[in-house]
Design goal:
eleven-stranded mixed beta sheet; globular; two-stranded parallel ribbon; alpha+beta
Length: 722
């Protein structure tokens, strides 16, 4: 309406309706405008289409800090199959309409997040035969607002925003799938995929765009009619060296989406600062990304992009753990409540007291030595002794996170990285990556799905499912695209990985050993087993706190290393004709397994804690723990309580099975049989896998039972646990 401005020194700009609003992220200014596919190539609306960028095109995956993550994972399959046809095909049931895309102007230099120069003073200028209020942030961006004759903002609320692409990027905050549909069409029609950092995703889209256009029939559609509303935002208060515009954008994302379809649990952990537990979890991911300690597992061994909910294990075969497990570890070790670490016979159930959780967190992180008793943060008064998961100072977040990272965070990552089965998995995965020759597009996509692009794995999976469905319902043969071939390549690589892992863990690639290895990891990769490992460390640390001399929080990583040495000694016990301890937790393929747990839900971690504790009690392992435990009696007492709790579970499961087979029998008649079966099975397992003599087991079994407040489980409890 007013041209691009006679004083234009920036390449990109938008114009439209100016607005401003306040959010938890602070003040947000915005311009309502539109992006267009057709029409003159140099119009602001066409240029805006080209300027919209998903986060994956703005930041290199290896440079991503999880505290800067916005909406990085894209469902390319959904965009290609659903949104592109919706935009390009005539609609028989009404007009094609997209709600506004929300994009935010953020500072980047060479694909790395930076900060904007400080905004200068407001100035009044004349340009394009009108008066404007101008404000400029160095060479990064500049804003104009139309003024009325009295020098006040005009009632029409007209504004313009310019930015410098070498210092700024227009990142899609909400509606990235809509934006990607526009970009895919634009890049295909202008043959400009090769000019972008997203060229590797070309195969997802180009064929689909051209196929839809071919189906149009009467030549290419009039793309000038394809317009999508866009809200372009920026943070006028987040400029200057001390500003945090990327953090503000993340908060705005949460605010914009809080009433939308609930995001996945993984997404919430990655984005939200509403809970301190999320911040601490992200700090571990960032540590893995930076690989400051090269003994840590690689980031690509952790699943953090799963768009779905999986209750008890990672969904992708290549990973050994996921972000949900890391948060569980934070919750149990940092927030507790304390009963879950101090009472090894305490099951995980029921509502947890926020007061108890917060109190335990302050103790576990020794907040008293980190923060003053009373302080202000952002003008808000805080009492250190009231800090909690949902009440903490954002300005002190880095200090709290650093305390966690150097103590509990380091200890948790040590367990998951260096304990023998997890170290073997990570080593095999790295070998697979190093041996993978990427020679063509589909191989590159498959490689990216495991080691690079967030969301690519799920896109390939969904695209393959769609291909199979379409092929079955079609009269003609559907050709395989690079996307389909990439998924098939992944399936082949899974078999390679199974052999690599069996070699690393069991030193053999014989088929029977590969199967035994898979049986082992079907247990070892569950939330229950891994959380049990971490909770074992937490519980034994609690025992050590009460022993003579006590311990300091800074010693925790060294303690974790000693535990790792102990468990690795257990796994390395020479077995010759005896049992291979690497299969000690297997449920199938072995005789007299100790693992009789009916399901692998995360609440079963308390029983796996018993298994990990039992492994520590073996002489070869205990020698590594002994220097930390002047008095072993308390450990042995706790071990007995944990064993008793597990035996109770086994009895109830046996009782349930007997009741199913003999529905008319009374429980009092069946209970002695169930007890005898469970006792016998546990005795044999302890003898075979942990070297416990029958006499030692019988002596323990004959001791008076000390029950927790939970008391003895009922048959109904057994049904629920099984």
């Amino acid at each position: 309406m007013f041209g691009s401005g006679s004083r234009l020194t920036f390449r990109d700009y938008v114009q439209g309706t100016w607005g401003s609003f306040d959010t938890p992220a602070g003040r947000v200014d915005y311009i309502m405008t539109k992006a267009r596919l057709g029409g003159e190539a140099d119009t602001p609306e066409r240029q805006l289409t080209k300027s919209l960028a998903p986060v994956r095109e703005v930041m290199d995956a290896g440079d991503l800090d999880f505290n800067q993550l916005l909406q990085r994972d894209l469902d390319d399959h959904r965009v290609a199959v659903n949104l592109i046809p919706y935009l390009l095909k005539p609609q028989t049931t009404g007009p094609a309409f997209f709600p506004p895309i929300v994009a935010v102007l953020l500072p980047f230099r060479s694909k790395r997040p930076t900060s904007f120069p400080a905004l200068g003073e407001l100035a009044s200028i004349n340009a394009d035969e009108a008066s404007w209020q101008e404000q400029r942030a160095g060479n990064a961006f500049q804003v104009h607002r139309l003024l009325a004759s009295d020098g006040q903002p005009h009632g029409a609320n007209v504004g313009k925003l310019w930015w410098n692409r070498s210092e700024s990027s227009l990142v899609v905050l909400d509606g990235q799938h809509r934006a990607m549909a526009l970009l895919a069409i634009e890049r295909t029609l202008t043959n400009s995929w090769q000019d972008t950092s997203a060229v590797k995703y070309r195969s997802f889209y180009e064929h689909q765009v051209r196929r839809v256009l071919e189906q149009h029939g009467a030549g290419e559609p009039d793309l000038s009619k394809v317009e999508v509303p866009v809200t372009v935002c920026w943070f006028p208060e987040q400029t200057g060296e001390a500003s945090r515009p990327h953090e503000a954008a993340r908060k705005l994302f949460v605010d914009v989406n809080k009433e939308a379809r609930p995001p996945s649990e993984s997404r919430i952990i990655l984005l939200s600062d509403a809970e301190l537990s999320n911040v601490l979890t992200r700090s571990m991911l960032s540590e893995l990304r930076s690989r400051s300690d090269d003994s840590y597992l690689p980031l690509y061994a952790v699943e953090y992009d799963n768009p779905e909910v999986n209750s008890h294990r990672p969904a992708r075969w290549s990973v050994l753990t996921n972000i949900n497990l890391l948060k569980m570890a934070v919750n149990r070790c940092i927030f507790g409540p304390s009963k879950y670490l101090t009472n090894v016979a305490q099951g995980i159930s029921g509502k947890e007291s926020e007061l108890q959780r917060d109190e335990f967190m302050r103790s576990q992180l020794d907040v008293a030595t980190l923060l003053e008793r009373y302080f202000e943060d952002g003008g808000i008064p805080f009492d250190r002794d009231n800090l909690g998961d949902k009440q903490f100072p954002l300005g002190k977040m880095e200090a709290i996170s650093a305390r966690f990272k150097e103590t509990w965070g380091k200890a948790i990552l040590t367990l998951l990285s260096r304990t023998a089965p997890y170290a073997a998995h990570a080593s095999a995965l790295t070998k697979l990556k190093d041996d993978w020759h990427v020679a063509d597009t589909f191989a590159a996509l498959a490689h990216d799905a495991l080691f690079g692009g967030v969301g690519v794995f799920w896109t390939l999976r969904d695209s393959h499912d769609h291909y199979l469905e379409h092929r079955e319902n079609s009269d003609r043969r559907v050709p395989k695209s690079d996307v389909i071939r990439a998924w098939e390549a992944l399936k082949g690589k899974e078999e390679d990985f199974d052999r690599y892992r069996a070699q690393e863990y069991l030193a053999s690639t014989r088929p029977e050993r590969v199967k035994r290895c898979k049986d082992a990891y079907s247990v070892l990769n569950t939330h229950a087993c891994q959380l049990g490992l971490v909770m074992t460390m937490g519980s034994i640390w609690e025992i050590r706190k009460a022993q003579p001399g006590g311990v300091e929080l800074k010693d925790l990583p060294k303690f974790a290393e000693s535990l790792v040495d102990a468990w690795n000694a257990f796994f390395q016990i020479e077995h010759s004709r005896a049992r291979d301890r690497k299969a000690a937790f297997n449920k199938s393929g072995i005789t007299n397994p100790i693992n009789q747990i009916g399901n692998m839900e995360s609440a079963q971690a308390v029983y796996f804690r018993y298994f990990w504790m039992q492994a520590l009690a073996v002489p070869a392992a205990w020698s590594h723990v002994a220097p930390w435990m002047p008095h072993r009696d308390e450990f042995d007492r706790k071990l007995g309580e944990a064993r008793r709790m597990y035996l109770d579970l086994c009895i109830k499961q046996q009782l349930r099975a007997l009741k199913t087979n003999q529905p008319t029998a009374k429980e009092d008649e069946l209970r002695p049989i169930a007890e005898n079966q469970a006792n016998t099975a546990l005795r044999k397992a302890l003898k075979d896998w942990f070297g416990m003599a029958d006499s030692e087991f019988e002596a323990w079994l004959s001791q008076p039972v000390r029950r927790s407040k939970q008391g003895e489980l009922s048959l109904d409890d057994a049904v629920a646990d099984a």
